[in-house]
Amino acid sequence: MEKRNRTHLGINDVVAVAESEHGILKVTVIHWGYHFNEALWSSVLSILSSFPDEVIFTCGKEMGLLQLLNLFISLVLVQEEARNGVINATTRVRMKLFKLVSDFMSSNQQFCITWTKSKLKDFQERGTIKEILEKECHFTINEDSVTMDRQEPGY
User: Quick count: other Cβ atoms within 10 Å of Cβ 16?
Assistant: First the structure.
C-alpha cells in the first residue's frame, strides 16, 4: 500500500524524497499560505460575528476566542509574506476582523485592551497585538474604540 501525506514547510511546491518506516516517499512541500481560501476564512469570522456580543465577548475567553483572533492575525501576517505584501489577498478577512475587534472593544473594553497588550506567540518580534493590528491591518486602537484606515490600497 502506498502511503501519502502532505507537509507544510514554507518552500514553494518543491518535490523531495523522504525516508520513513514505510520506505522511500515522494514529498511535495507546500507553504500553507499559498493555498489560502479567503472565502472560507472570512466565513469563520462571519459565524463568530453572528453570536450575540454578550456571549462571544464574555464567554469567549474560556471558549478560545483569543486563540482564534490570534490565528487570524497570524494568517494575515503569513499572507503578507507569502504574497509579497499584496494587500488584496486578505481584504475581506481584514474587514471582518476589524468588525469583530471593534465589537470586542465596544462590548468588553477591558478584556480587549488586555488582549491587545499581549504578543503573538510566533510573531513576538513584531510587538504587541495592538502594534501588529495598527501596522499590518491599518487599525487604530484607542482606549475605547477601533477605527480602520480605509484609504490603504486594496480596501
Answer: 12
Q: What is the pLDDT of residue 134?
A: 93
Residue 21 one-letter amino acid: E
Amino acid identity of residue 115, one-letter, is W
Instruction: Band the pLDDT of 151: cuts 50, 70, 90.
Output: low
pLDDT at residue 53, rounded to an integer = 92
Type of residue found at 37: N
Instruction: Check if the beta carbon of residue 97 is closer than 8 Å to that of residue 137.
Output: yes
Alpha-carbon dihedral sign for residues 86, 49, 126, 79: negative
Q: Compute the distance between CA of residue 64 and CA of residue 68 in angstroms, rounded to an integer.
A: 6
Contact, 138 vs 152, CB < 8 A? yes
Q: Give how far the C-alpha of residue 124 lies from the chain's centroid of Cα atoms, to the nearest Å.
A: 15
Measured CA to CA, the distance from residue 123 to residue 26 in angstroms comes to 32
**Dihedrals phi, psi of 58, to nearest 5 degrees:** -105, -50
Check residue 49 and give its pLDDT.
Answer: 93
Q: pLDDT higher for 34 or 59?
A: 59
What span, in angstroms and rounded, lies between the C-alpha atoms of 137 and 80?
Answer: 10
